[in-house]
Structure prediction request, 447 residues.
Amino acid sequence: MVDSTLPSQPAQYSSDEPPMPEKIGKYEIHSLVGKGSCGFVYKGFDPFVRRDVAVKTSRGFTEDHAHDEDSIQRAFFTEARAAGMLSHPHIVSLYDAGTEDGMNYLVMEFVDGDTLMPACAKNGPRLPVDKVVDIIFKCAKALDYSHSRGVLHRDIKPTNIMLTREGVPKVMDFSVAEVNDPTAVVDAKRNAVGSPLYMSPEQVQRNKLEPASDLYSLGVVMYQLLTGETPYTGADLLHLFAAIRHAPVPPVEAKRSDLPRELSTLINRLLAKKVEERYQSGRELGNDLLRIFERLKQADMNLSRRESRDSLRSLRFFDSFSDEEISEILGASHLLNYAPGQEIVREGEIDGAFYLIARGNAEVRKGNTLIDTLMKGDCFGEIGFLTATRRTATVKAADQVLALRVSSTLLDQVSTDCQLRFYKIFTQTLIYRLSLTNAKLSAAKGG
Prediction:
């Protein structure tokens, strides 16, 4: 079976390997990106449709007799048939297949990214929980589609799931897939296929596989993404397979105390020993994952609101506001981040908003002249807020700035009591700033 992992860096040839071809079929070959015991995976280019492709070859280049020509041929035609039946945004697409000079090749979508394996590293950084849920949700959708077309993958593992640079997962490598064929003869001496660490209990026993078997393997991938470990290990295959068949699932919450209970429950169901106790379809799994994802996002929003409210609570402007009133103001405003040097408002523009600096420092400039410096708790834009006139100066972030932007239109949405309190403090602030300006003008004239 060809290892079709597509790493982010090109693979290297060893001295006993054949030179990289310039072309395979009509496809230009640019670099080697993966290799296995039965062939290679190249990054290629289709000159007709002008796109990058992955060209996966299948030929007994090595002297490893464990991979005879018949098994290589079976893997090639299995993958060509299985992948050719599938068209899904979270499955790597098959574009073409052919044979040239005794070498079989598949032409597939080239995924600019890496497999999930780096995200599963034991000592590496863990992905955010909501990102893991999103990845597994999309893989569940892909498997539900595959199963509905009569295709069992049978080798779901981190190296068979690509993650694009945009974070989109794509299932690949159907070389050991099982394609439902009513005319096929059932092999009573069925061989165990797949990757041992990710095999289901029925898989290690060489029993008939069902969609729940692929979902079990996906559950192992999820467990590893969250913890950096697979649920089971063993000194050898005998001990590993015995653990998969009989040992209780090591509680994921013991390794990640921050995980929500419902996520731990979902993983336990995915990894249940009995097929009938697991999720029976990717759709069923996806529905539960979607509910968990929505709760996680809501929890993030609530946390973000609390953090934002706490940021405003520390400002003098909001001394007399209750937490509920600050939350009302936040709901009718925008808390915005500005990078150093970024303009917050520009001279000459019409902007009917009032700004309050919650963190950082900003510069007020008239043309190229610095006329004032604003710090945490300072505000600006009162006149524009009241009359929507043109800005008379530019305000630019001096360092990382967090600023609350309040517009009079949105402020109409808050309760009457909250509006009255806001306008009372707003008026006091405006009077104070005007008195400071008058004092500066008087001092300047006196000088």
